[in-house]
Structures are given as C-alpha cells and as structure tokens.
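Action item from last week, closing it out:
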Amino acid sequence: MKVINRIAFCLLIVICILTTISILNFGYGLGNVIYIFPVILLTTLHFFITRRLELKNDDNYWTIIVFFVLVLCIGIVYKTTIGRGPEFSWNGKIFFIK
C-alpha cells in the first residue's frame, strides 16, 4: 500500500504543478483559478497525513487514505479531460498548450 500511496502522491504533485502553470486546464477560462487552490490543498494535506502515518508506524489507515486520494485523483483527471467546462470543452487532448 505504501508504494501505491507514493504513486498517488507523485500523481498529485504532477497535477498540482501542471495546474499551477496552466498546462492542465479545467475548461472554465479564468474560472480555473477556483480549482488551483483545492488541488494544492489536497496535495499538502496528503503529504502531512502520509508523514504522520509514517512517523507513527500505523499501517491500519493506509488503505483508506490511498483509496480516498485515488478517487480524488480520478475525479481531477475526469474534470481536466472529458468533464471540461464550456469555454474550452474536450477536444481529445489532455494538455492545454496556448
């Protein structure tokens, strides 16, 4: 589970960076700013929860944390692909390069 957690954390970091530099687009134009802060908050929250569980050596909650983070990552990927907003709707490309 710890390996899957690391993969999910790396995926969150990549999503966070790509969203911040506007390569990953949610399709709402200037409204994409609304999504940047929850993605950054989710990444930092996941980092602190993971760090706390590693320091406590508590293996009981890894499955719950990994499942929750992977569901949120799938939701973010959906919102940046097929579920894009009306301003820049889905055109078959994941990345939005201006």
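Closing note: The chain has one domain: 2-80.
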